[in-house]
Amino acid sequence: MKHDHFVVQSPATPPQQLLLLFHGVGDNPVAMGEPGSWFAPLFPDALVVSVGAPNPGGAEPGREWFSVADVSEENRQARIDAAMPHFCALVRYWQEKSGVMPAATALIGFSQGATMVLESLKAEPGLASRLIAFNGRFGQLPERASLTTTVHLIHGDEDRVIEPQHAVKAHKALLAVGGDVTLDIVEGLGHAIDNRSMQLALDHLRYTVPKHYFDEALGGKPGEDDVITMI
Fold first, then answer.
1. N or C: more exposed end of the chain, with fewer CB within 10 A?
2. For 75, left (φ over 0), alpha (ψ -120 to 50), or beta?
3. What is the three-class DSSP state of 171?
4. Within a 13 Å sphere around the CA of 67, how many CA atoms are in the beta-carbon half?
């Protein structure tokens, strides 16, 4: 599957984990590889890849996952839905190439890349076990959540591109449908990733125990479809 990408780290032995990074509008996989370099030393057995969006967007060599020209609350979800099959296919491509299953896959996105990561939870539950969204949002809030996917929302409280209220609403909506989700609002941060937000993401991947592990230990194993539907 031909697409723009930047390999941040490829272990000498078969990878045990897969970390995929997704950039925002007007950015590119090489630039998003810089945050990826934070993850690599802590996960030496992981294949870490920054994946490029398919469409030109913004200044060269900028790319975008879907067009933001005249985007609105009314048309955003349709644009996301149109872009989602390609996004999910990219994730599956790297899973197949690396031999890493969804249970050991983490999707990490910033801005529009974070939106695609979050929306994949709705489109294909169980595509990955960990989702980290820096300064992103859902197109429309979810009405169900995967019981096997842990979501971490990280957002700057001074973000004026994607307002932090979107992260707060996403956190509340996922909790309401039984999702495994955490939220960190970073004080004084705009639409960016800084050392503090990166450390929150690293700590989440290293130390957070997925909720479904506890549920299974207590005998509350997920059903066959691994989702809870809003009543």
1. C
2. alpha
3. helix
4. 6
Among residues 111, 120, 129, 146, the one annotated as catalytic is 111
Kindly name the residue from 5, 50, 155, 159 that is annotated as catalytic. 159
Predicted structure pTM score:
0.90
Torsion of CA 113, 183, 122, 136, to 10 degrees: -20
pLDDT in the model for residue 136: 98
Beta-strand pair 17-22/46-51: parallel
Q: Is 3 a catalytic residue?
A: no
For residue 182, count other CB atoms closer than 10 A to its CB.
16
Token pair of 40 as six digits: 């690599």
Q: Which of 74, 68, 158 is nearest to 115 (CA)?
A: 68
Nearest 5°: phi and psi at 80?
A: -65, -45
How many alpha carbons fall within 13 Å on the CB side of residue 144?
15
| Nearest Cα residue to 8 out of 58, 55, 43, 60 | 43
180-186: strand order across its sheet: 5-9, 46-51, 17-22, 105-110, 130-134, 150-156, 180-186
Active site residue 50: no
* Active-site hit among 4, 184, 191, 215: 191
Mean pLDDT across 25-49: 94
For residue range 185-200, list pLDDT tens digits in order: 999 999 999 999 999 9
